[in-house]
Amino acid sequence: STHSLPVASVTDNKEKDMTAKVFVQYPSGAYRLYAGNEITFEEAGRYLIRYFVWDESGNFAYRDFVIEVS
């Protein structure tokens, strides 16, 4: 089934146009970079969703959450 992921908001004191990248780790261990905000869960198991952002100075931040599909 297909579900919408939350939209991340990013702020920085110097850069104006920053967008978080969304990586998904599948139950098999494989990673995929997502361009949109929808994900299709094709198999049961644990999915790690990681929002990752960095700036031109090399600072970075990330936030993880897990979705369990049965």
Please write out the topology.
Blueprint (H helix, E strand, L loop, with lengths): L1 E3 L16 E5 L5 E4 L3 E3 L4 E10 L5 E10 L1
Antiparallel strand pairs: 1-4, 2-3, 2-5, 5-6
Give an overview in words.
- 0% of the residues lie in helices and 50% in strands.
- The protein is mainly β and 70 residues long.
- It has a 4-stranded antiparallel sheet with strand order 3-2-5-6, with no helix packed on it.
- The chain is elongated, with a radius of gyration of 13 Å.
- The chain starts with a strand and ends with a strand.
- 1% of the residues are buried.
- The mean pLDDT is 88.
Structure described in brief:
The chain has 70 residues and is mostly beta strands.
Strand/helix succession:
EEEEEE
Multimeric state? single chain
Indicate the low-confidence ranges by residue numbers: none
Which range does the strand content fall in?
over 45%
Structural classification: mainly beta
Overall strand count? 6
User: What's the gyration radius in Å?
Assistant: 13 Å
Main β-sheet description: 4 strands, antiparallel
The gross shape turns out to be elongated
Mean pLDDT: 88
Major sheet: arrangement of strands: 3-2-5-6
Q: How far apart are the first and last residues' alpha carbons, in Å?
A: 12 Å
Count up the helices.
Answer: 0
Helix content: under 10%
